[in-house]
Amino acid sequence: MSYYHVSQIGNLLKYADARAENARRKILSHKIQVFLSHSHDDADIILPVLNFLLSHGVNVYVDWLDEAMPKATSGETADRIKTKIVEADHFVVLLTENSRNSKWVPWELGYADGKKRIQDIGILPLKRSYFTSDGEFDGLEYLNLYPVISSGTFAQSGLPTPVVFPPKRIGGSGRVLGAGWLEKSQADF
Question: Which residues lie closer than 8 Å to 82 by C-beta, 6 or more apart?
């Protein structure tokens, strides 16, 4: 298992406008909703991450793209985020060097942990720099608690593909992201 680098995510996809694609998908019924928890210091890489998730046929909720979100952070902001976490089918943490210092990411993850099944929470570690090693994320307990979305190889074709690895504490082989993890009716690991 190897964590993605920002350029790998961007190179995987061809969508030009994530907002337009996400809006189009919201019109379609029966689409899976993913809440994307992230540091606002990572705003510059949200577009490729959105495209990456959109390419798997889901809607993605990003708080600062929500026009109903209050302009200034307040209790209303927290209430709206809580509502959106509950409404989402899946909760994904964009784990970067920046999110380690975020006040909101751990809070959102803790709230999601109390509201969602473990298998409906995923961690997407993403290295912003080629100089960042996978070890940069060592010591983050949630990498041992929740499924990790990472780079793998599709067995039949040998092509690189996103793989969801069950939590380290459970072990087991990876699951292909688009072939099951984002489906509503997931079996327990």
Answer: 111
- Render pLDDT for 116-128 as a digit per residue (tens, 0 to 9): 998 899 998 888 8
Contact, 48 vs 13, CB < 8 A? yes
- The architecture (CATH level 2) of 4-179 comes to 3-Layer(aba) Sandwich (3.40)
CA 62/CA 58 separation, integer angstroms: 13
Give 157: exposed, middle or buried? Use CB within 10 Å, 0-12, 13-18, 19+: exposed
- Residue 120's identity, in one-letter code, is D
Instruction: Please count the other Cβ atoms lying within 10 Å of the Cβ belonging to residue 40.
Output: 13
pLDDT in tens, 30-80: 578 999 999 999 988 888 888 888 877 788 999 988 888 888 889 999 999
- C-beta separation of 188 from 175 below 8 A: no
Phi, psi of 138 (to 5 degrees): -60, 145
Which two tokens mark 171? 């072990």
Domain ranges for the chain: 4-179
Residue 140 makes CB contacts below 8 A (sequence gap 6+) with 95, 100
